[in-house]
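Session log. Operator J.P. requested a structure for one protein chain; no other inputs attached. Running the standard single-chain path with token output.
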Amino acid sequence: QVQLVESGGGLAQPGGSLRLSCAASGFTFSSYAMSWARQAPGKGLEWVSGIYSDGSRTYYADSVKGRFTISRDKAKNTVYLQMNSLKPEDTALYYCAKAIGTSIIGGMDYWGKGTLVTVSS
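Structure written below.
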């Protein structure tokens, strides 16, 4: 049974940092790409970042490029999202998702329940 459990959300000040974690289980973690997506209050789902199964390639939405970094730890079956220089518009529920294959091109088939990030002074 695939499980994705996000953690690390909370309240941060503008300009601050947070690191999100997503603990994965129930599948061979190293064989699948992973992504992060977010949903701001009253808005639709926005893809944020993705990483290939072997970590060789990473991708970012223009809105977070240069501020967020995605990474993965094969030994811990965990994918991370380091978020720096946070802005109020980064406030959202952040979801971790498992890709259908080794890249993010084919889409996602499993999602976590999300972790809330609030950026406010």
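Operator note: The mean pLDDT is 97.
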